[in-house]
Specification:
This protein is mostly helical. It is built from 3 helices and no strands. It has helices at residues 13-18, 22-33, 36-50. It is elongated and about 35 Å long. Bound molecules: zinc ion. Zinc ion is lined by residues 3, 5-6, 8, 21, 24. Residues 3, 5-6, 8, 21, 24 line the site of zinc ion (ZN).
Length: 51
């Protein structure tokens, strides 16, 4: 079984039971808790990392 967010194989039983990797689960929780402005901030940070 792979993580539906990043498509990497789930290694731990907990991740398989939840159907998502621990990192992506945390990210999704952060996104759910943040307003739309928070998502824009995340995208901007990602662009900066790529540069
Ligand atoms: Zn993932």
């Amino acid at each position: 079984m792979n993580c539906p967010v990043c498509n990497r194989p789930l290694k731990s039983k907990k991740s398989i039971e939840r159907g998502i990797g621990p990192v992506c689960e945390k990210k999704q929780q952060d996104w759910e808790n943040q307003p739309p402005d928070g998502q824009l901030t995340f995208v901007e940070e990602t662009v900066l990392v790529i540069k």
